[in-house]
Sequence to fold (128 residues):
Amino acid sequence: QLQLVESGGGLVQPGGSLRLSCAASGFTLPDYSIGWFRQAPGKERKGISCIKASDGTTLYADSLKGRFTLSRDNTKNTVYLQINSLEHEDTAVYFCAATKSHFDASGSCPRKSEYSYWGQGTQVTVSS
Fold:
């Protein structure tokens, strides 16, 4: 059974950092692209970034470049999202999702509707 489990969320002060993990089971990570999304209270779920697990190609939403870094460890079947210089506006539930749709560095992340598998989310709260 294909499953994604996020972890690493929590309460952090503005300016702090977090590393979120997305652990995959039931499938081979390099066969998929993994996307990260976040959903703030009362708002729609929006894409943050994506990574093609086979070769590590990553893309980021323009507004988030520089503070967010995606990486993967295929030996652990896990994708990581490092978030630095956290801001109040980063408060949200963060989700990872898997799709067999691929992309290249000159393109864009797969659309939200293309992701077939979703994790349950991990809460990130930025507050002093």
Q: What stands out?
A: The two ends are 40 Å apart (CA to CA).
